[in-house]
Every structure is written in structure tokens, then in C-alpha cells.
Amino acid sequence: MNNFVWVDLGVADLDRAVGFYHKVLDRKPTIETFEQFRFAVFPHEGNDVSGCLVPKDNFQPLTDSTLIYFNVNGRLQNAVDQVEAAGGKVIEQPHSIGPHGSRAIIKDSEGNTVALHSEETVQL
């Protein structure tokens, strides 16, 4: 089981970033839409660790650029329940990310913003 399962790379201009990574990596990210939100997924197969390009309003590269996803498959809520007791802070409670499962966004004990990910979809 991989500890790292996904990376969101923040971008100011989604189409420009897709073009850049297509040329540089010679593999074109696929633009998808989930609940009126456009993003682009890097090509990957099966359980390969991958990521996507995520457009951000007023993008600031030093604070908005990268979100690393940690694997807590099957125990997302339990992991979130441990965050504050371990010295962190919950930024976003568990929520669906469509066909990609569910995530919660937290700050760890050192102030890093990371995501906790499960393949299971949270029922709201």
C-alpha cells in the first residue's frame, strides 16, 4: 500500500498548464468536470500514484501549488477524528471527490496542508 496516493498541483490557467505538461511530459492530462469544477488528470494506469492540475482563483504559487494526498483507505473518518488530538487542524471535513473517492483537508502538526484520501465515497 502506497502512503502517497495523489497530488493536486495548483495552476492559474488550466488550459495553459495542460498544454505545458503535454509538451514536457509527452502525455496529455485529461480535462474532467465534476460539479461544474474543471480540472485535469495526469495519465496513469491502475493503482499508479498520479495527480491532477487544479485551477485556483488568485493563484499564489507559494501557498496554493501542491496538495499531497495520504492513503487512509477505509478509515477516512477515523483518521480525521485523530487530527486535532495529534496537534493538527481539520480544514475540510470528509467529502466526495466524485469517482475518485473521498477526501478531507487538514493541517498537520507542522502547519502543512495535506489531504487524507479514501477510495470509498463519503455518503452526505
From TrEMBL:
Residues of the VOC domain: 3-119
Coiled-coil region list: none
Pfam families, A to Z: Glyoxalase
Name the record gives this protein: VOC domain-containing protein
Taxonomic lineage: Bacteria, Pseudomonadati, Pseudomonadota, Gammaproteobacteria, Oceanospirillales
